[in-house]
Amino acid sequence: MSALFEPYTLRSVTVPNRVWMPPMCQYSAAPDGPLAGAPTDWHFQHYGARAAGGTGLIVVEATAVTPEGRISPYDLGIWNDEQVAAFRRITAFLKSQGTTPGIQLGHAGRKASTDRPWKGGAPVGPEAHGWQPVAPSAVPFDERHPVPTALTTEQIHEITGQFADAARRALAAGFEVVELHGAHGYLIGQFLSPHSNHRTDEYGGSYANRTRFALEVVDAVRAVWPEDLPLFFRISATDWLADGEGWTADDTVRFTAALRERGVDLIDVSTGGNASGVRIPVGPGYQVPYATRVRTEAGVPAAAVGLITEPEQAEKIVANGEADAVLIGRELLRDPSFARRAARELGADVHVPDPYHRSV
Ligand SMILES: Cc1cc2nc3c(=O)[nH]c(=O)nc-3n(C[C@H](O)[C@H](O)[C@H](O)COP(=O)(O)O)c2cc1C
Fold it and tell me: What is the pLDDT of residues 319-332, one digit of tens each?
């Protein structure tokens, strides 16, 4: 029996297996015009192929709740009804393959308005569809980035409302899981960490103040996201800075327990992205221990991500109780049928589309 191919139930949703796809930006939407931010044929074939490949749950890439929240002008967005209509085609196809459709809702904050990574990823201005980024404090990510505009309290409340509106639209678009992007140094993570949050009002300073925005977003989203559907939160478990300088793994354990009480069902545990120039000990499964801490110390279901590339490796993580599920990123870019390959190697059953039946 394979633990990796055991179904997993969260609220009313049963995911067919524990091989999941994490959010991965494609930077392939139109930057302006009536279909700005809407998924395209590229997204349809990209997500469709991974669903046909047996992936249990797909978290669609970081999707901006407002145009200024895009990482690049080419990001997906979910701030209007044209975008909702375009997403429906994708969610319907994923469901036809038995894959649970999820979406990551995000706001890039001070890391917004950059070029596509394969064009260098540098910050861009209005001449290249860019804009002035906002953040908790007027502190740039690094010397390449512009100084962001510090948000007023009113603007913070407005963004919280935009997350709730985006969740309502995600439901209308057919998604069954919403994941809030609290990781990688984007807006929610910028509030959490003392490295990027230098505010002196009720949204900065103490742990309680720095976590306030994230908790308000969770409450606003949970209030509109149906009771019977799961809510995920992606966190960077550590900034990889010295204690006292950034967000730490101990903060993560404390905070994720609070998220659970607010109705978050699963934590997607990543690390880093908020401090430039830090050294990260990257290697196979290097972030798994952080998911395990969330699962065992905070008692919250957790998914592991980061250099999980081999079926046996993934199987052990789930079988040993290190995580409830694994997210396979770049390996799924290389091989859209990773789940099917893993099932074959592990002797497990997985969805195979009828037209592919001769390949079993
Ligand atoms: C092309 C690409 C785009 C990504 N976009 C996102 C994103 O939209 N949101 C996010 O939280 N992480 C994003 N990530 C990080 C992945 O979700 C994942 O955490 C990371 O790639 C590590 O997993 P892996 O070693 O299996 O690839 C991205 C990674 C890649 C390679």
Answer: 999 999 999 999 99
| Ligand 1: centre distance to CA 355 (Å) | 30
Phi and psi, residue 172, nearest 5°: -65, -30
d(CA 221, CA 218): 5
Instruction: For residue 200, give the amino acid letter.
Output: T
254-313 residue pLDDT tens: 999 999 999 999 999 999 999 999 999 999 999 999 999 999 999 999 999 999 999 999
Ligand 1 environment, Cβ below 6 A: 22-25, 61-62, 104, 181, 183-184, 234, 270, 305-308, 328-331
Give dist(CA 151, CA 314) in Å, integer: 41
Percentages helix, strand, coil for the chain (3-state, rounded to 5) are: 40, 15, 45
For residue 217, give Cα distances in angstroms to 174, 182, 233, 236, 254.
Answer: 21, 10, 11, 17, 18
* The two structure tokens encoding residue 19: 């091989």
**Is 289:308 a contact under the CB 8 Å cutoff?**
no
Q: How far is CA 85 from the centre of its chain?
A: 21
CB neighbours of residue 282 within 10 Å: 11
